[in-house]
Amino acid sequence: MQAGFSRMNDLTVIQASQGLAAYILSTSTSSPSIVIGHDHRHNSRRFARLAAAAMIQRGIKVYFYTSLVHTPLVAFGVSFLKASAGVMVTASHNPAQDNGYKVYWSSGCQIVTPHDKNIAAAIEENLVPTCWDEGLVDIPSDLVEKPLERVEEAYFERLKGINIRREGVTEGLRFVYTPMHGVGLPFMIRAVENLGIAKDMVVVKEQAQPDPTFPTVRFPNPEEHSALDIAISTADAASIPFVLATDPDADRFAAAQKLASGRWRILTGNELGILFAAQTLDAYRLKAAPLDKLNKLCMLCSTVSSQMLKTMAAVEGFYFEETLTGFKWLGTRALELQTAGYDAVYAFEEAIGYMFSPVVYDKDGISAASVFITMAREWASQGLTPYDKLQQLYKKYGYFQSANSYFISKSPALTKQVFAEIRALGNPHPKKLGERKVLWWRDLTAGFDSATADGKPTLPVSKSSQMITAELEGGVRLTIRGSGTEPKIKMYIECKAETEEAARKGAEEVSEDLTKEWFRPSETGLLLP
Questions:
Q1: Do the Cβ atoms of 348 and 267 come closer than 8 Å?
Q2: What is the pLDDT of residues 347-373, one digit of tens each?
Q3: CA 215: distance to chain centroid?
Q4: What is the 8-class DSSP label of residue 17?
Q5: Please, which residues have CB within 8 angstroms of residue 225's CB and are 6 or more apart in sequence?
Q6: First vs last Cα of the chain: how many Å apart?
Q7: Which helix (H) or strand (E) holds 37?
């Protein structure tokens, strides 16, 4: 948040809102409306009120959330209220100085092409601010409704539908919860009350209340090293074996378990993703017991997430698809598959994002926490912990281990140059990496896929972003891509093997080979984290 046309401030929020309003009016046949919510970050409330003013001034009805909300409640509200669009003012788990403006379309999904490009064009055509009055949303009007209470009621009623468990499961689940100085606590309290275990939750008091400065964490992201330290210390002090966390806008979820050895194990995004998939499969079978075939059940993950879900689908007989990175793609594709007759009930991404589409077509940390508690209680009745269950799944589907990392790139030009040099290692693609042959190559920048009949990828191609995926001998799959939001080149490496040790070794070997042969930081100028 700073002055300037490329920063988040009153002017750019008004301009963005005016452009979005113009686009809504150009596409709506009648009664256009929008849901607007905000988190606790600096200026979030003011930015949301300015966005509302731009809509009201143009005759668009505003459903305005008057209190702090978690991001998924905007996505849910768009669908529930049948609104034309939605805006959530949040920067999620970014540093304290940031803020953001997330847009949803009438589907309840984040915007994708062509809406993103059309909205950007409309913003450029509506740059002159016409209303600075944030108080417009407080004036009684047919164009303003404040429906937060009934939307919340509907959301939690929907949430009950995904927490299916077998009869006779009465175990509690003692756990420590941290909202990481964000907005999650009221929603988490309501979720555990509905599950009947409110007394089992201990909240990290130092991180319980919304605080836009995030004083106790270096980065307010549960994925970051040390982010869960205070929560784990709280759990140790009370002899509690589980830690659950949501990021500041509560759309991401993390969990840690204390093992029998006394060591804490923070479950990775991929591990949680597979545990949720196993629970989703069991719940689907429980809900539709007469079904012998699961061919209508559908689960998805992004192309940089674990391929263990694909293996699970092949073994169990349900339908699987992968999409580009981001829940705008996962949510949109799930909705398309749902319309086509599939039960597209679940999707995940390795960056601790989990979507339970009976609730929302976007990632949702509160839904994920609720499902985690439900499945952990059920497994406890069988004498299992989530870690034990994960080992069972590995034994059944194979061991999958990752070695994800990134390089810092000084400029977009350097990123483009590095990828061009990688492509130049072979025609139409490199033949080897280290001692492993390249078995399959997909380049979503150049528009090439070695596995399709016409050589073209089935996923969308974008020449403005760098992304290559390959499969190598030895059960290894890798994806390298330029980040769209940070000066980084990210690499995602996963190896499948018959033992955990072999899988980890394979992933780490490929990480070393990538660094030495393709990225060559000492020569290219890429920086190690």
A1: no
A2: 999 999 999 998 999 999 999 999 999
A3: 24
A4: H
A5: none
A6: 25
A7: strand 33-38
Over residues 228-256, mean pLDDT: 97
Q: How far is CA 237 from CA 85, 410, 426, in A?
A: 46, 44, 57
- Report pTM: 0.94
State the residue for tokens 């529930």.
80
* Furthest CA-CA distance within the chain: 70
Which residue in the list 92, 107, 306, 370 is annotated as catalytic?
92
| pLDDT grade for 228, boundaries at 50, 70 and 90 | very high
Report cis status (omega within 30 of 0) of the bond before 428. Answer: yes
What does DSSP say about strands 467-472 and 448-449: parallel, antiparallel, or unpaired?
unpaired
Q: Is 233 tagged catalytic?
A: no
Closest to 256 measured CA to CA, from 363, 178, 196: 178
User: In the structure encoding, which two tokens stand for residue 340, read together?
Assistant: 């086509």
Contact 133, 34 (CB under 8 A): no
Assess contact for 242 and 218: CB atoms under 8 A: no
Phi, psi values for residue 389, rounded to 5°:
-65, -40
Name residue 346's amino acid.
Y
* Among 404, 416, 412, CA closest to 446: 416
Give CA–CA dist 85/339, Å, rounded: 20
Prior bond to 129 cis, omega within 30?
A: no
Residue that the structure tokens 């909240």 belong to: 203
DSSP string across 314-368? HHHT-EEEEESSSHHHHHHHHHHHHHTT-EEEEEEETTTEEEETTT-SS--HHHH
Spell out the alpha helix ranges (H) of 382-518: 386-397, 412-423, 500-513
